[in-house]
Structure formats: C-alpha cells, structure tokens
Design goal:
Elements (H helix, E strand, L loop, with lengths): L2 H6 L3 H16 L7 E5 L5 H10 L5 E6 L2 H10 L4 E4 L12 E7 L8 H14 E12 L3 H6 L10 H10 L2 E9 L4 E8 L1
Parallel strand pairs: 1-2, 1-4, 2-3, 4-5
Antiparallel strand pairs: 5-7, 6-7
Bound molecules: S-adenosylmethionine.
Length: 191
C-alpha cells in the first residue's frame, strides 16, 4: 500500500471510525460463532475490534494478510491471533474451518474482478454452511483515486456485489451504501 495508507489506515481516527461506525453497520446482530477469519487486516484496526468481541466468549481470530511486513507486525501486536501470510484467493485452511469471516476495506486492493471473485469463492469454501460473511469497502471517487496514486485501486460496484456473492455460493446477500456513497457494507451467509 502507498504512504497515504500508512498514515490513514494506522491512525487512531481510522480505528475509531471502524469501531464506532463501519463495523457495527457490517456486523449488525449477526452471530459469528467461535472461529472467525479476517481477510486483509492491514494495520489491524478490525483485528483489534474483533479480538475484543471474541475474547470474552473464548472465540478465536485468524487473519490472512498478503503483505509479509504487515503480517509479521500483526503477529507481534496480537499474540493471541493466528496470522497467515497468504493470498486470500488461496487460503491455507481446510474446507468449513470457520464459523464466520470478515473482510473490511480490502477488496478494492485486489487488482482484478476475477481475483476478487476467487477470494469470495475461497471464503465460501472455508466457511461452514450457514457461516456469516460480512465486511465493508471503499467506493469509487476522484478523491479515492488520488489517495491510491501508485497503488492498486479496483473498487467493487456495490450494485453488482449481491450477484457476485450469489455466484460464489452465498445466500441472502444484503449490500448497503453509506454516507452518500463513501463506502458500503455487506452481509451474507454460506449456502
Ligand atoms: C486498506 S488495507 C485494509 C486494512 C483493514 N482491514 C482496515 O479496514 O483498515 C487492505 C489490506 O488487504 C491486504 N490484501 C490485499 N490483497 C490481499 C490478498 N489477495 N490477500 C490477503 N490480503 C490482501 C493488503 O496487503 C492490506 O493490508
């Protein structure tokens, strides 16, 4: 990720935004169960929140991060979290290993729609039937394109996401756009 991300995505303001606004909208009243997978944790704002939700109930969090330096920093910061350095399109986990999966602010960093769809299919494979898949992502704008200069920016069109989730093997997808088109959240469950 470029320097803009290092500044914004590791900031206290971003962590607060994820904790107070984005994640509550994404999670709603979903039942996550005991084994949760996080895709693309980056600097760890969602990891921190999810750890706080799961720990009191004895739940476990596993993260998959492509960037080796971010994966290593995350493992040091969260010793109770299992961190795998991998492409989420090739998850190093058995079928039906997780009860839920969370993926925030990540899909627009995946360079092609084909690769994004491969990630959706992999998440479906490692979720048990009925397992919740939820998350959020940033939407397209001139400002966002400028923010991603020199970086991958391949925003997902929320209008097409429900169809893509259904094609990947998910049921009852719900996609909601927030803050005048700034970002969207989604929630679905494995068929
Ligand atoms: C903008 S950060 C999001 C961090 C955090 N989830 C948040 O909401 O603030 C996107 C993260 O996804 C990771 N990522 C991108 N492509 C990936 C892939 N194919 N598999 C796993 N992680 C990936 C990037 O390395 C980066 O750390």
């Amino acid at each position: 990720m470029n320097e803009n991300h290092a500044e914004v995505c590791s900031s206290a303001e971003w962590a607060e935004h994820m904790r107070d606004t984005v994640l509550p909208r994404a999670l709603g009243d979903a039942t996550l169960g005991p084994q949760v997978l996080e895709i693309g944790p980056g600097y760890g704002p969602v990891t921190e929140i999810m750890s706080g939700i799961l720990a009191p109930h004895g739940g476990t969090l596993t993260c998959v991060e492509l960037d080796p330096e971010l994966a290593s920093a995350l493992a040091s910061r969260f010793p109770a979290v299992t961190v795998a350095r991998a492409d989420a399109a090739r998850l190093p986990f058995a079928d039906a290993r997780f009860s839920a999966a969370v993926c925030c602010t990540m899909l627009h960093h995946v360079p092609t729609a084909l690769h994004q769809d491969a990630i959706l299919a992999e998440v479906r494979r490692v979720l048990r039937p009925g397992g919740v898949f939820t998350g959020s992502d940033s939407m397209d704008s001139d400002g966002r394109r400028a923010f991603h200069e020199g970086d991958v920016f391949n925003p997902v069109d929320p209008a097409g996401l429900a169809t893509r989730l259904s094609a990947a093997g998910f049921a009852d997808p719900v996609v909601a756009v927030h803050d005048g088109g700034d970002y969207f959240t989604f929630q679905t469950r494995r068929r």
